[in-house]
Amino acid sequence: MSYDKAIQEESLFNYAKLTYETSYSPFGETIAAFTEYIQLYPGSERIQEAYDYLVATYLQVKNYKSALASLDKIVNKDKKLEEAYQRVAFYRGLELFRNVEIEASVNMFEKSLKYEKYNRSLRARAIFWRGEAWYRLAHYDKARADYELFMGIPGSMSVEEYQMVRYSLGSALFNLKDYSGALNHLKIFETSASDVKPEVMADALNRIADCYFISMDYQTSIQYYDRVIAFGNLDADYAMYQKGFALGLMNDNRGKVDVLTALTVKYPQSAIVPTAIFERGRAYQVLEDYTKAEADFNSVITDYQNSALVPRAILQLGLLYYNLNQNEKAIAQYKKVIENYKSSPEARYALTGLKNTYTEINDVEAYFSYLKTLDGYGNVDMSQKDSLLYTSGENLYIAAKYDRATEVFTSYLTEFPEGSFRINAKFYLAECLNLSGKSEEALKLYEEVAAEPNNQFLEQSLLASSEILFKQEEFEEALEYFRKLEMIAVNDVNKLTALKGQLQSASFIGDAQNTIAAADKITVLPNIPEELIREAVFMRAKANYSLSKFDDAINDFRKVGTEVTSMEGAESKYRIAELLLKQNKTAESERVITEYIDQKTPHQYWMARVFLLLADISQQKGDLLQARVTLQSLRDYYEIENDGILDEVKSRLSALEEKKQQ
What is the DSSP letter of 157? Predict the structure, then answer.
């Protein structure tokens, strides 16, 4: 009996050693075997050797998820295992970060940092990447703390991340509105960085320019905006707009006109174009070129009818006609704003303009008669109460006293349902409710604000509505709101958010055509994050696959399937092998499968599907023994029980058994 146990122990050790030496451990067989050996034979004379092999496996394996699961089972870890844990947890964190599982990556970096004493470089890198994760989650204060901690670690200058830390810290400080601190770090990055991506340098230069712009050093800001413009497509439209605006603030309105005109010609599809045309109209107005100013304001009104700039353009026309003593035309424009955009700042400014115009023509009675026709304007006392009650709510909102602000805005809307600040109150009340976790109530208000034409909160309300609907998995409605957001977005970030939202919403509801349309738009945009490009191309491939457009699908799968670390890459490479097999290109399919196995994906489901494909190929070749061995390997070592893989394995093994019986 003891002889049998000795043989079992030896067999298990030799099997584990063999899988280690052949590097053939797609489902963590080596880790599982050595872990089992350690648990079964803790007193073995080879226990230290088993631990040494296990540590070595952890350090070389790319299946970090399984490695961590195994390490977590070992309660009493020695120094070598703790050191292995630090490394494996760090690389698992990186893996999660690159798969856009940002919150999970923070947890992994913190697990790695529990054993930070072993490897100083890994400690520094874990802190840096935790900072990057906090930045992605918009926790800029935590990101700043990690970047500063990273910079203070002795030896951090020798790790590859050091080159980017000034850029990252500067960006975090910029978002925290510490512009002098941001400027300091971004300028160090600009002068010291080498071999960085052009889009990163363009963004850094834009932020440097913005810091100078905010501090009213317009001349220096223009020098930096010019450098971005020289890059070409990378944020050049934004830089040109900012340069034009800065020139206007320096009273160089002719220069402002020239730059904004160049922007509209060079980047006609830019989301900034409507604003550029509006600002050019204002510059023409200062230059007393009223014909061109009028043309620009009318262009905004007719060509960008959904823009929040429309009431401002109509208001500017009223002012232009007033300055030209064309009082009847001025009155008509002011009334258009008051009547069509009642609860807007422009309506209040238009009332002042209307009063001045009627005074100019000595017909104040007509002004007061007109006021009496407007709800809420005829009673001066009520109008003052309207303003005071709203202002108190706004002050509470600014002070972040959201519960009290909610009460005041609710009271305001009850007492003044058609009040002068109705839209503002609804939007800020929605914000308060959303921040308090009452997203359903907030959504109703955001939708009401979004239904009001051309208001200043339109873009923010569409963004909030679409994001709430997406989180609630109301993907069809979310898709519609993301479309509306794309149409009116002035902010390039929001436009990209709208396209990403369309891509994901359409994909979730199986709308292949809209998935492809959104992906096509995303992939031609400049300065898009690598992970979003990967996601867009991948979803387009899957959409074409669902439409049986296999040639288009495989072209995109090849673009994404160059690696198998990301979820998209892992599935894409599998799909390439699958489609090649469907096209009877068996040898090429096998080559892709071999590459796949060698690359050691962390995504076990797709690795398992690759092995199922391999079993299919063996069957096609008539090698039923190899097919059975492959399937048995899955049965013995695949650990996930509820994703359908083991059911398929069982079914296929049964089918093979039936063939054997025949």
Answer: G
pLDDT of residue 24: 61
d(CA 304, CA 460): 18
Q: Is the pLDDT of residue 564 over 50?
A: yes
Q: List the structure tokens of 341.
A: 């955009």
* Contact of 448 with 422, CB cutoff 8 Å: no
Q: Which residue type does 114 have?
A: K
Structure tokens at 145: 């703390």
Inter-residue contact 557 to 570 (CB < 8 Å) = no
End-to-end CA distance of the chain: 39
Q: Collect all residues with Cβ–Cβ distance below 8 Å to 161 and sequence separation of at least 6.
A: 124, 125, 128, 129, 150
What single DSSP character describes residue 75?
S
Report pLDDT digits (tens) over 183-235: 999 999 999 988 888 888 999 999 999 999 999 999 999 999 999 999 876 68
Instruction: Reduce the secondary structure of 510-546 to three states and give it as a string.
Output: CCHHHHHHHHHHHHCCCCCCHHHHHHHHHHHHHHHHH
Kindly give, in sequence order, each residue whose CB lies less than 8 Å from that of residue 388, ignoring residues fewer than 6 positions away. Answer: none
Q: Which helix (H) or strand (E) element contains residue 191?
A: helix 179-192
| Contact (CB, 8 A) for 560 and 538 | yes
Max intra-chain CA distance, the chain: 117
Alpha-carbon distances of 591 from 596, 609, 610, rounded to whole Å: 9, 15, 12
Contact 199, 181 (CB under 8 A): no
Backbone torsions φ then ψ of 351, nearest 5 degrees: -60, -40
Phi, psi of 306 (to 5 degrees): -90, 0
Q: Which two tokens stand for residue 301?
A: 């009104």
CA distances from 391 to 381, 384, 617 (A): 15, 11, 73
Q: Which two tokens stand for residue 409?
A: 């805005």
Please report, as a single letter, which amino acid is at residue 528.
I
| Separation in Å, CA 201 to CA 187, 207, 231 | 11, 10, 9
CA distances to 12, 13, 52, 645 from 6, rounded to whole Å, are 10, 11, 21, 35
| CA angle, 458 then 463 then 466, to 5° | 120
CA separation (Å) from 216 to 213, 245, 286? 5, 12, 21
Cβ neighbours of residue 156 closer than 8 Å, sequence gap 6 or more: 124, 128, 150, 162, 165
- CA-to-CA separations, 72 to 50, 56, 89, 471, 572, in angstroms, rounded: 17, 16, 11, 33, 31
Is 206 strand, coil or helix? helix
> Which two structure tokens, joined as six digits, stand for 549?
């457009």
State both tokens at 180: 């002098």
Go through the chain and tell me how many residues it has: 662
C-alpha pair distances (Å), 125 with each of 58, 150, 204, 546? 19, 8, 22, 41
Q: What is the pLDDT of residues 256-310, one digit of tens each?
A: 999 999 999 999 988 899 999 999 999 999 999 999 999 999 999 999 988 889 9
The reported pTM is 0.78
Gap between the Cα atoms of 489 and 309, Å rounded: 11
CA dihedral over 172, 176, 179, 184, signed as positive or negative? negative
How far apart are the C-alpha atoms of 318 and 321, rounded to whole Å?
5
Q: How far apart are CA 426 and CA 428, in angstroms?
A: 6
The pLDDT tens digits for 361-396 are: 888 788 888 888 887 565 545 666 677 788 888 888
